[in-house]
Specification:
Blueprint (H helix, E strand, L loop, with lengths): L11 H4 L36 H11 L12 H4 L46 H10 L8 H9 L2 H11 L5 H12 L8 H6 L8 H11 L18 E2 L7 H4 L2 H13 L15 H4 L8 E2 L24
Antiparallel strand pairs: 1-2
Length: 313
Amino acid sequence: MNPRALPPLLLCALLAGAILVPFPAFAAGPAPRAALAPLPPPPSPAENPTTPGKIALGKKLFFDRRLSGDGTMSCATCHDPETGFADALPISLSYPTTRNWRNSPGLVNAAYRKSLFHDGRSSSLEEQALFPMMSPFEMNRNLDYLEEVLKTVPAYVEAFQAVFGGEITRRRVAMAIAAFERTLLSRDTPLDRHLRGEPGALSARQRAGLELFLGKAGCATCHNGPNLTDERFHNLGVQEDPKAKEDPRVLATARFVGKVSGFPDYRTLREDPGRFLVTKNPADWKAFATPPLREVAATAPTCTTAPSGPLRR
């Protein structure tokens, strides 16, 4: 698709925007309007039903810096409410003396995702919540020690007893944070009102953007469904930030992740293998999850490490 063919910010008012990148591997044919739909009510898993008490506890944990090894980072450090619960950085903030190798995906509407992280390594918010805490280049917190730290806080002891009927455990920490994250939902947009059949919900420019999105521009080929993602993984040929590859700390992180993921040649790794680290399928080399487009205007950059900039690019 040709970014020059679209007026600046044409799609921003429609659905908070869309990144304009070529789709060399996909046929950009027209998509039916049924490819888009309003968001349904958020799920409440039977194994972790959402309750007001659990949400309140999860919110407190989400913003608590004691969840990191040196007490300087919380979940909100990289998932900032002011930037769509992402971090607006090409590469996320890191634990002191280390360097991350990807940026933080936004958490808005994460409740609807079938897989989480850019490579889809987690299938639930409960599983996802613990990964950054344990990661040596993110929050670097030993979970056994975390449990003991939280047990020294009377307010937490009381809250876990009230919400879960028992003591503080890492599983319950994850369940509470996941319950809070399921409340991070996108706003009602002109697109949602249009899809519900509300007359005049879209302006003329927004209708033009929708026609391009569904038709010639080919955006809906991958960005479809209620959350504007096909929940699949694609290699679009987007280049990583070349400066990142020059940082030995980034290389150390990449090789560490490769090692713990069972990558056979991890010592030679100089780029992000993407979904391949999870599946070991050569077809998934450098493939990444299709990001949802809701609230995307607040969550630039739009690729895993590439400095893609604002939506008009």
